[in-house]
Amino acid sequence: MRAPRQMPADRNRVSSLDVLTRFESFASLCSDSRALLSRNLVLTRSPRAAPVLHKGQAVSGAYLVIQGRLRVFTIAPNGAEATLYFIDPGEACVLALNCLFNNLLYPAWVQAETPTDIALIPGPVYRKLFESEPAIQNLTVQALSTIVYRLMAELEQVHASNHRQRLVHFILSHAAADGTLRTTQQHLGRHLGTTREVIARLMQELVRSGAVRSQRGAITILNVVELRCLGGVALDTEMRSVRR
Amino acid sequence: MRAPRQMPADRNRVSSLDVLTRFESFASLCSDSRALLSRNLVLTRSPRAAPVLHKGQAVSGAYLVIQGRLRVFTIAPNGAEATLYFIDPGEACVLALNCLFNNLLYPAWVQAETPTDIALIPGPVYRKLFESEPAIQNLTVQALSTIVYRLMAELEQVHASNHRQRLVHFILSHAAADGTLRTTQQHLGRHLGTTREVIARLMQELVRSGAVRSQRGAITILNVVELRCLGGVALDTEMRSVRR
DNA sequence: AAAGTTCTGTAGCAGAAGGCACGCTCGTGG
DNA sequence: CCACGAGCGTGCCTTCTGCTACAGAACTTT
Asked: Which CATH topology does B161-237 take?
């Protein structure tokens, strides 16, 4: 590709395309497609906690997360939230794709969990790419597949587990490599669709058992084995994407 | 499992293709594709309550429901079931497609809710069709989209509603045209992931309010408005596939 | 340093939900 | 005609969950 470095608009576009290298699917596009993308990509940055999409909104394109993390969640009539899933760098917002293809209104809320860079491909452009580019077709199917699995796993967990098990699972699966999970009990409550007090009571159990340590705004895993144990057997039988 | 039909194989195959007219997507296939399908389609009939797929099974192809209804459900460690969604005639089992494309093991159980005719397209055949036939690509994306919506709706309902609301919603959305729902309380409990007693108690409320009548093995809606009312406001704010 | 805000730890109470037990009704089949 | 089983109604008790309230700790702002 050409690399005019100083024109503000062009520079933005070029870096946009470059940034899409996270999506292997975009590497194999034909030159026409690349040009089309180059002309129409929109790069945006959402600060932490900024709303990205709201329920009922008409979706204007395909959202690809470049950096950061988006949270997709619902809000119950009583105001309680519940996280459906997260969208990490390199992933696409499938619900947006979904709405795009079926001409639907967006069925949930999306918020930036951390400061997030988003690449927006306008709807008509994406549809055009989908028609001619096998790579985009595969990306779409893969993205949908992924979300189907996440939703099924979440649904199964909601049905099969109590709050203690779900909390333990959340801690185990979202903790950083050093065993720390930087989040507040209030947020945990929201993710699990329950209240802060419930989380506090459960955390109390976990702390008493010595499995974790509770600090302000963070949880540290002290004993993974103990924690897994407190999570109960549900974790063993939990649905996994087992490769055959 | 296997087709109990005793007819010659050829006749079976021909009728299989005809039967696929339910899927408009198969009408536009090129002759090569039709021939490929014709050679490889497998028609099976599952009697009521027969297992079709079980968790962890390697998926052998794409499942299209011709007639009847399949139930996709999970089983919790404690043995409690919960219905994820149903597959009605003209629809494809998306999880199977999903597994097919991602080479995964099947993540749930599938059972014939009523005697069900299923067309099975072997995996390699489906993949080949997907590569060359835009109609199949669209069918796949549509099927995945549909399931994403159903799962999200289910998940949102689980989070936002209590059992009464979910029961009301189930009755309203699954009752036949004459306002009757032919099922037992035991089954209702399974679908909603709860127990028979809970259903009985809730039914008692509904009956007392005059919204429904309870017979052995069936429920009759007497007053739709009253029933909707008992379902609470959750139904109004429920996620719908609103066409813009 | 003082004031204000956010986060966490507790407690108590009310309602929802689940588990268990029992009795009843209806239909089927001997 | 009767026994039996499936389905339904109901009471009691326990556990889980949500809500309100309050106090102290930790961080931020002024």
From this structure: Arc Repressor Mutant, subunit A (1.10.10)
